[in-house]
Amino acid sequence: MTMDSENSQQSQPPVAFAPPSPQYSSPPPQKRPSGIALSALIVGIVAFLVGLVPVIGIVLGLAGIGLGVFALIKKQPKGLAITGLALAAVALIASTVATAGLGAAVDSVSKEVKKAESAEVVEEEPAKVAEEPAPAPTPEPAPTSKPESKPEPKPQFTMGQKNAISKAKSYLDYSAFSRSGLIKQLEFEGFATDDATFAVDNVQADWNAQSAKKAADYLEYTAFSRDGLITQLEFEGFTPEEAAFGANAVGY
C-alpha cells in the first residue's frame, strides 16, 4: 500500500497557477479650454470699470459681449463666460447713456455759444446805426386854410308853389299824367299857371315812364292798336316820342 500511494503521488501532474490579471487605471479627465471665457471675463471687468467713459465703454462692452457669446458657443466654462457677458452688457448700457448725455451737453453748449455770438452782432449793429448822422427832417409845408364852403341856401318857395308841388306829387302817386296834362289838372284845381308849371317842372317826373304807365292803364280796360294807343297817349298830352315809348313799353 505504501508503494501504491507513492506511485499515485508520483503520477499526479503538478498544479499550474494562473498569472494575476493586469489592472488598468482610467485616464485623468481632460480640462476644457477656458481661454476665451477668461478673456470675456477680463474684458467685461475692464468694461464695467470704465463703463461711464463715453465711447470707450461701448467698444469694450461690445467686445466683452462678443467674447462671452463665443465662449458659450465653444462650451467653455459658463461661469466665466456669463459673468463677463453680464459685466460687458452693463458697461455697454452705461456707456451709451453717458455718450448720449455728453452729446446733448455739447449740443446745448454750442447753441448757447451761437446765441451769444448773435447777440453780440445785434448789439454791434445798433451802435453802427447810431454813429451814422440822421438825415435832416424835411420841413412840412404849412397847411393852407381852405375857405369854408357855405351851405347853399335852400330855395324859397311861395305858398302857391309849395301846395302845387304837393298836389302834383299826390296826383302822380295814383295815376299817370303827361306834363301838359298835369299842368291842366293843377289849373283845374285852381292853381295859377305859373305855380302849376313850376310844380310840374320840380316834381322830377319821368314822362316816358308816365307814358308807359298810362298805356298799360288803357290796355287794362280796353284794346288798342298801336296807332290807336299812340294817338290816345298824344291826346293825353304826351309828345309823339313819349307816346311811342309808351306803346313800345307795353309790347307794341
Question: How would you briefly describe this protein structure?
Answer:
The chain is mainly alpha-helical. The protein has helices at 2-11, 35-49, 56-73, 78-131, 159-174, 179-188, 193-202, 207-221, 226-235, 240-249.
Structure, described:
The structure is a single chain. The protein has 252 residues and is mainly α. Helix content is 67%, strand content 0%. The radius of gyration is 67 Å and the shape is elongated. The model has no long low-confidence stretch (mean pLDDT 77).
What is the total tally of β strands? 0
C-alpha termini separation: 193 Å
Q: From N to C, what is the helix and strand string?
A: HHHHHHHHHH
Strand content: under 5%
Question: Helix content range of the residues, please?
Answer: 55-70%
Shape: elongated
SS class: mainly alpha
Q: DSSP helix count?
A: 10
The gyration radius over C-alpha positions equals 67 Å
Major sheet description: none
Mean pLDDT, to the nearest integer, reads 77
List low-confidence stretches. Answer: none
Keyword list:
252 residues; 10 helices; elongated; 67% helix; mainly alpha
Draw up the topology in text:
Blueprint: H1 2-11, H2 35-49, H3 56-73, H4 78-131, H5 159-174, H6 179-188, H7 193-202, H8 207-221, H9 226-235, H10 240-249
